[in-house]
Amino acid sequence: QTSNDPTPAQRHRCVAAAVPPKSPSSARIHQHHRSRRDSRLSGDDRGPGRGGRLPRPPHRAQPVDLQSIFIMGSSAQNRASDVDLWVCCESHLHPALWPKVHAVNHWARTHGVEMQTYLVDPQKFQLGHPIPGCPTPTLLLDEFYRRATLIAGRYPLWWLVPPDAEYRYQSLHDHLIDHRFIERDAVIDFGPVSGFPDSELAKAAETELARALQTPHKSLLKLKLVDVYARTPNEPPISTQYKPAVYAGEQDPDALDAYGCCCNTWKAIAPAAVNSTNCSCSGDCSYAGSPTVPK
Known about the structure:
By secondary structure, this protein is α/β, with parallel strands linked by helices. About 50% of the residues lie in helices and about 10% in strands. The longest helix has 19 residues, at about 25-40. Residues about 40-55 and about 285-295 have low confidence and may be disordered.
């Protein structure tokens, strides 16, 4: 490069001077092409033929295999009480989950807790299929609604049906879902508590008699409940009587306790079948770690 050659800055000024300025129309065309190029790079959803990609499908949440987890409890719970855990999912997942269930139960025993974990398919349970290890599904559902605490997942749709509308359970269920008052995936449905079959009451009594040697106080409470249900088949179950107290805002744990509700029900709907002696005995069994059975 000689001293007479232009510097790079001089060459740039010469080229800029030789190029005529853009007209307003050409500037708009240039801006249009640049916008189309930017939309293609950014994946603008303008559809084919308009400088964009095909519209992306809406985001869908991945299906969750486990629907809900519940734990059962009452104010009579103590260190020696067992713990019932419900893991709700479809039945085709049960074979893969059973090894994990056994591992969880074993882990709980190493910490001094006797845990019973049940795998529950809500649809099959609603059709009357018993849970493995429990041949009395209707009585179990009645107890579930009185004792279950939601740990994670969907809440029971049963709580959205008013106490005086249990007979319209299915129509209210369809109304809430079809009119989108609630999301279908936000609730879990076990259905209402229907009448208790005589065969199920007899099976429950037989089971509690066999358990009475290990847990006499608990077996006595459940035997009295079976007795009341058998004597008063037209009376609503305890869970249906329990729901109005929750709707009314009751917060006293004794008034909402599952076994306390049993005692109150015996006194209210079967006074002739429940005398003062066995009422006192049942009350002791409800709140004592070891029952005080009167002589």
